[in-house]
Amino acid sequence: xxxxxxxxxxxxxxxxxxxxxxxxxxxxxxxxxxxxxxxxxxxxxxxxxxxxxxxxxxxxxxxxxxxxxxxxxxxxxxxxxxxxxxxxxxxxxxxxxxxxxxxxxxxxxxxxxxxxxxxxxxxxxxxxxxxxxxxxxxxxxxxxxxxxxx
Length: 150
Known about the structure:
Number of helices: 3
Distance between the termini: 14 Å
Shape: elongated
Radius of gyration: 20 Å
Structural class: alpha+beta
Strand order of the largest sheet: 3-4-2-1-6-5
Largest sheet: 6 strands, mixed
Number of domains: 2
Number of strands: 6
Helix content: 40-55%
Order of helices and strands: HHEEEEHEE
Strand content: 15-25%
């Protein structure tokens, strides 16, 4: 398997996991709205239960908006060009980890290998940003050698 195929598989696996998050949030929003509708109008001016349910729905809506923007970010990863520096969309093999710089999903399994899907906002990505194959980075008191970037 070549590098482009591996990156394509990683993007698809991330999309699958992110789609599960999106589906769960949509379901939670729907349930909160349904509960509020079933409860009906507030019983008196001190009845805040319905308002709590609607606030919960709004909270899930905000989380859904973030999840959708992350899903769309995955769409923007260039699958055709290999990268020679660490950046958004790059796959990085270090001396002890395989990292996919994309969105923060944590561990993902692709082609029977474990990868760490992290966003550009985490400290590890920031430490590796713009580094190249052969560079050594000191992170949390340990040396990370970049074996490969694509």
